[in-house]
Amino acid sequence: MVAISRYAMLGQVDDPESSINRMATFPPVEASDIESDNDITITFSDGDRLDALASKYLGDGRYWWAICLMNNIHLPLGNAVLPGTTLRIPTDISVIQNVIKQKQDDKD
Predict the structure, then answer these.
(1) β-strands 40-43, 86-89: how paired?
(2) Is residue 41 helix, strand or coil?
(3) Which residues pair with 87 in a beta bridge?
(4) pLDDT above 90 coverage of the chain, percent
(5) What span, in angstroms and rounded, lies between the C-alpha atoms of 11 and 55?
(6) Complete DSSP assignment for 18-39
(7) Cβ 50 vs Cβ 102: under 8 Å
(8) Which residues are CB-contacts of 78 (< 8 A; sequence separation ≥ 6)?
(9) Which of 23, 52, 77, 84 is most buried per CB count within 10 Å?
(10) How far apart are CA 96 and CA 75, in angstroms?
(11) Would you kindly state where each structural domain of the chain is located, as residue ranges?
């Protein structure tokens, strides 16, 4: 049996504003849209997983998407993050949730 990525079931869309193929689970948000004062930076190591990092730093592995947003990782598939990459990790998930909500409200 072939292993399937935990992120493989994500919907993908071509974002007409940025011309980037991205996850369809939330509106287009770039790292520059997120102002946060107390971020942590780490170096991604071989064997690291975004969900495991979210669990460690954010208390819940389901917040892997927040790490993606903070680092402009549009599709977390395959080798989207290579060992040695510096990642910005938020310390307050509500900052990102507020940016997403504002983008959704602006869109509506």
Answers:
(1) antiparallel
(2) strand
(3) 42
(4) 27
(5) 23
(6) TTEEEETTS----GGG---SS-
(7) no
(8) 5
(9) 23
(10) 18
(11) 29-94
